[in-house]
């Protein structure tokens, strides 16, 4: 749980210049407003940048994220190792 103004994010850059942000976004200040997660795929700046695809919202940050875009699968694994 975190406030709606707080976001935790990790970014992965792929060999073709695409980037994926995996975000955990605060749901709100009310205890019933749980945080939510999503992965967002961005085009490289040389192609204009900007969001090109995203996943549906989820409630788990630590997992394998996949986005298919233009016949390619972009995959990121968020793992917590101790």
Task: Report a brief summary of the structure.
The protein has 82 residues and is mainly beta. It contains no helices and six strands.
Task: Tell me what you see in this structure.
The chain has 82 residues and is mostly beta strands. 0% of the residues lie in helices and 45% in strands. It contains no helices and six strands. It has strands at 7-13, 19-25, 36-42, 51-54, 64-69, 72-77. The strands form two sheets. The protein has a four-stranded antiparallel sheet with strand order 1-2-3-4, with no helix packed on it. Strand 3 and strand 4 (51-54) form a beta hairpin. The radius of gyration is 14 Å and the shape is globular. 9% of the residues are buried. The model has no long low-confidence stretch (mean pLDDT 87).
In spatial order, strands of the major sheet run: 1-2-3-4
Uncertain regions spanning at least 5 consecutive residues: none
Beta-strand level of the residues, as a percent range? over 45%
The value of Rg in angstroms is 14 Å
Q: What attributes does this structure have?
A:
single chain; 82 residues; mainly beta; 4-stranded antiparallel β-sheet; two-stranded antiparallel ribbon
């Amino acid at each position: 749980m975190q406030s709606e103004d707080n976001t935790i994010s990790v970014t992965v850059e792929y060999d073709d210049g695409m980037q994926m942000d995996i975000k955990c976004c605060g749901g709100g200040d009310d205890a019933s407003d749980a945080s939510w997660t999503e992965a967002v795929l961005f085009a490289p700046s040389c192609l204009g940048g900007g969001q090109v695809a995203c996943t549906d919202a989820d409630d788990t940050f630590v997992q394998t994220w996949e986005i298919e875009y233009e016949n390619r699968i972009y995959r990121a694994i968020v793992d917590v190792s101790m």
